[in-house]
Write a structure and sequence with these properties.
Length: 119
């Protein structure tokens, strides 16, 4: 089993920044990738960004490209999401996720952290 704990959400004005963190514990030795998803009120959960645990390659959703940056610290089993130039449409619950096998659905999810961007 793997446990994911997120932190760093909050309320920020449009144009501001926030940094989210997610630390994995448990059976993390076979991690393929970690990523962030988000779910806004009344909408389905959507992919935001992912990072390969072995080589650091990243994949971003078009909506956040150039504004969000994902990074990782393998020694701490932690992934970070730096969010800059935030927009009201970025308001959502952000979920950290861990993938065990490349190309397969993400296997483990955090509890989510609220990000609210005011206009």
């Amino acid at each position: 089993q793997v446990q994911l704990v997120e932190s760093g959400g909050g309320l920020v004005q449009a144009g501001g920044s926030l940094r989210l963190s997610c630390t994995a514990s448990g059976r993390t030795f076979s991690t393929s990738a970690m990523g962030w998803f988000r779910q806004a009120p009344g909408k389905e959960r959507e992919f935001v960004v992912a990072i390969s645990w072995s080589d650091g390659r990243t994949t971003y959703a078009d909506s956040v490209m150039g504004r969000f940056t994902i990074s990782k610290d393998n020694a701490k089993n932690t992934v970070y999401l730096q969010m800059n130039s935030l927009k009201p449409e970025d308001t959502a619950v952000y979920y950290c996720a861990l993938q065990l096998v490349r190309g397969r659905p993400f296997d483990y999810w955090g509890q989510g952290t609220q990000v609210t961007v005011s206009s």
